[in-house]
Structure formats: C-alpha cells, structure tokens
Amino acid sequence: MDEFLDATTKSNIPQATRRVFFTFTEASIEERGFYNADQLSGMGSGILLRYRSRYFLLTAYHVVVHTLAVQQNESPFMLHARASSPGRIPELYDLLLPRWHWDIRTLMPESHGETAWNDVALIELFDPLCSIPDNEVIDLDRIQVLQRREFFDGQMLIASGYPLQRNGYEYGGPDEFGPGLAQLTTIQRHHTPGAVVRGLGRNDFYFKPSDPAVNHDALNGMSGGSVVNLYPQARKTKWAGMLKAVDERTGLVQFIPAWVIVPIIRRYAEAQRRDLDPNAGAPCVGITPKQREEVQRFLSHVASLR
Fold it and tell me: In 10 A of CB 124, how many CB atoms?
C-alpha cells in the first residue's frame, strides 16, 4: 500500500495542488515603486491548471470569497509556481498572481444530491515568469478524468492539500527571521488516503479518511485541493475531483467530481469575468496563441532537462 501511495502522490494531479497565500499591502506599487506584500495570512488550497496555454487556479469559492468582495490595491493572493519550490521562495518570479475571476458557478449543473456543486472558483493567472514542468500542472487538453461510472464504494482515493496544522504562520518584529523578514511559514503539502462512500443522491460521493483520527481540524485548509484515485503506476492515475468541505456531523469529506468540473472549465469564457488585479486589463506582451504554445513547449523542455 505504501508503494502505491508513494507512486500516486508523485503523479501530476497531487503535484498540481498549490497553497494559496492571502496578501495585505499598505501601499500600492505606484506609491512604493515596487510590489510588497506587507502581510500574509489565511489558508486554503487550489489546483493549478493549464488550458490552451493559459494558467488557472481552481479552488473552492468559500476559500477566496472574502477577497472577491472587496477590490484591493494590489493582487489579493498569490501561490507558488513550482510544486517542488524550496522552503524559502527567493524571487517574485517564483510566484503566480491572479488576474481575473471567471464566475463559473453560473455554469455548474444541479447536483441532485446533498453536495452542492456551486462552491467553485476559477481564477485566471498572469502568465508565469518561470518554467512549470508538465508533471506539476493539470493540462486540461490531456487530463484523464475518473468518470461517474468508474466510482464505487470502497474505492481508494488520495486527497492532497495544505492543512493549517502543517502550514501555520509565525509573526515577529522587523528582521526577526532574517534581513527584511518579519513573518515565517512552511509550504508542506499533505496527502490523506481514504475511500469512496456513496451518499443518498445518485451523484453524491464522499471521501472517508482511512485514519479515524483525521477530522475537520486536521483537514482544515485543504478545501480546494485535489482528489485522485490510488494506482500503482503514476501515469495511470485519474483526477477524481476537488475537495470542498468536511461534514463535521459525519466526518466525511465532500468533493466535487472532476467529471462535472472539467466540461464547465472548458466553457469558462461564457462566464462573467471580474478583475482581481489593478493591471488585469493591461495588455500583456503581444504574442499570438501559437507563439504562446511554442514558448510553453520550450519552457517544458528546459524543465525536463533539469
């Protein structure tokens, strides 16, 4: 079992899971002359996607709703570009910043069950300034999705995310953690094995952690993370869904199936769009979609040589 677990967690679906850092800035770039996040806070996970050479963050709507309600003077959150980033992110180029929120909730179908499917948010990101290997992102043009007919009671799954218990913050005075560092946190992705439990509705599927000691507190912060089926060969794993929330009454974990989400994401342009960054509407470097794909292939090739 440990061998299967290790192989599955190394597949691109768990590796595509990212931690979301919420930011607060006291002054704009125009005032300072440079970007600075004065404070990081909050918790939550998300899944890094690539679709038609654009990058997106898929997460639970309740994870980011507080940042969508109020327009900030800078990007309201950020995430690490690489799954294998070192403990200390050295450069701004190693971060991904949000550009637009596409409200795909309006496109989601009714679940006809106990788990509502509208707790979902799709964030389009600014183009990354570093290379992201193919095995650290879910490519919607090639992803294998676990279909509804493939779910069954007792099926082994792996849930991945960043629980607050393992990713807390330490706050201190100026330079307490090093020159210019007044805050410290970890980036530790956690993988929890479990099994499928069928609900009352025909589309209700739950995740039951294998360890009975794993409760709401242990999983708090993993909302928006990935769920994948357990398989001995990493390349044969399939995306099962996105973590939503823990039912404190039953201890079961709700997740939205990938077979529901993926077709909706491919229609994202039909949804309402909202700026998340003051520069969201500014023109980017003028490249065509074909040139964008060529650049991405080159960056993926470079990453594979490391």
Answer: 19
Q: Are 57 and 98 in contact (CB under 8 A)?
A: yes
For the whole prediction, is pTM greater than 0.70? Answer: yes
Identify the structural domains of the chain with CATH numbers, from first to last. 2-304 (2.40.10.120)
Specify which residues 221 forms β-bridges with: none
pLDDT digits (tens, 9 = 90+) for 134-149: 999 999 999 999 999 9
Taking residue 105's Cβ as centre, other Cβ atoms within 10 Å add up to 17
CA neighbor of 44 nearest in space, from 32, 61, 30: 61
Q: Hey, how many other C-beta atoms are within 10 angstroms of the C-beta on 14?
A: 24
Q: Is 264 helix (H, G, I), strand (E, B) or coil?
A: helix
Locate 54 and state its tokens: 């654009």
- Cα–Cα distance, 256 to 244 (Å, whole number): 7
Q: Token pair for residue 282?
A: 């500014």
Measured in whole angstroms, the distance separating CA 281 from the mean position of its chain's CA atoms is 23
Mean pLDDT (the chain) is 86
Report residue 85: phi and psi, to 5°: -60, 145
Look at residue 99 and give its three-state secondary structure. Answer: strand
